[in-house]
Amino acid sequence: xxxxxLVLVKPDGVARGLTGAILARIEAxxxxxxxxxxxxxxxxxxxxxxxxxxxxxxYEPLVEFMMSGPSVAIRLAGNRVIEGFRSLAGTTDPTSAAxxxxxxxxxxxxxxxxxxxxxxxxxxxxSATRELGIWFN
Length: 137
Ligand code: CMP
Fold this sequence. Notes:
alpha+beta, Alpha-Beta Plaits, four-stranded antiparallel β-sheet, binds adenosine-3',5'-cyclic-monophosphate, metal ion binding, ATP-binding, EC 2.7.4.6, magnesium
């Protein structure tokens, strides 16, 4: 059924000039852009966004990475868009993400403590509602 999700083009995607290529895939798939903005999140916003990862070894590097430059936040709509965008994105680790996916085609391991994997997509309707409230308020 019709639903919305939060997509982020993370700082690595913006810095590498991949925002347009990523948006092109989202649009070609047929999902609707409802809202889009460039955001430079502070630590407080990121701690809310990533609260489920607090205490994990990659948490602090993740927050630092996400503060390293702007992200593009996208409110995306369509039937089953949460599942559909995660399929477009590919699996978390860009080294093994399937070719044909955003992470598989554009991502790699840069030898850092955090997986720089270009995009984020909400993983459930509950996460989408929560995360959209954090990035679009
Ligand atoms: P995302 O799905 O947006 O949310 C959690 C992020 O943490 C994930 O993308 C990666 O950027 C990062 N991440 C997840 N697992 C690891 C890991 N094992 N090591 C380093 N970074 C990770």
